[in-house]
Amino acid sequence: MVMPLRSLAVAIDGSEGGQRALEQAVDIAKASGIPLSIVAVVPKRETYGMDPQQRYVVRPEERRFLTEVLSRAEAHARATGVVSVRTELLEGPVVDQLLSFFEDRHPDLIVLGARGISATRRLFLGSVSEAILHHAHGSVLIVRPPERGSKA
Predict the structure, then answer these.
(1) Could you tell me the CATH number of the domain that includes residue 68?
(2) Domain presence at residue 18
(3) Using CA atoms in the order 47, 51, 55, 56, what is the torsion angle rounded to 10 degrees?
(4) Could you tell me the residue range of the domain that residue 119 belongs to?
(5) 152 lies in some domain
(6) What is the reported pTM?
(7) Within a domain: residue 151?
(8) For labelling, which of 12, 55, 112, 133 has a CA lying 20 to 30 Å from the CA of 100?
(9) Do the Cβ atoms of 111 and 141 come closer than 8 Å?
(10) Distance between alpha carbon 39 and the CA centroid of its chain, in Å?
């Protein structure tokens, strides 16, 4: 028995993969008539300065960029016909913030974009979508990039 979706969340970051995830989430929310939460995380970057209280900082340009990304995403979702859209801008370690957000909101489906990075880079850098896939308590849809040479 398939459980009906009641809520949906998508994480975006301004990347092409995030845009593909947003498109998929908007399509699902519109077709299902369910609320859509759009979330972005401004990463805190480690700095090496004299003040230990300022070890991690948020860059204002990243906050402005992601605020605009969320605003455009919300406008797009509403223009496409999604009735209930909510956005949230978080700050901190990306995976931790997303997992906390998903744990608090309990969406029935989480949609994320895959970056398509190589196995070597993934080994050293990790992958947000992979971490969410393995640690989130709920269903996760990873939207992959089109295969090279495809017209998608």
Answers:
(1) 3.40.50.620
(2) yes
(3) -90
(4) 8-143
(5) no
(6) 0.84
(7) no
(8) 55
(9) yes
(10) 6
**CB-based contact 34:5 (threshold 8 Å):** yes
Domain membership flag for residue 29 = yes
Section 103-117 average pLDDT: 87
Tell me, what's the pLDDT at 43?
85
Q: Which two tokens stand for residue 107?
A: 């969406």
Q: Which of 41, 35, 112 is nearest to 74 (CA)?
A: 35
Give CA separation, 97 vs 80, 94, 126, in Å: 28, 5, 16
Concatenate the DSSP letters of all residues of 13-60 into one string.
-SSHHHHHHHHHHHHHHHHHT--EEEEEEEPEEE---S-GGGSEEE-H
Number of residues assigned to the chain? 152
Number of domains in the chain: 1
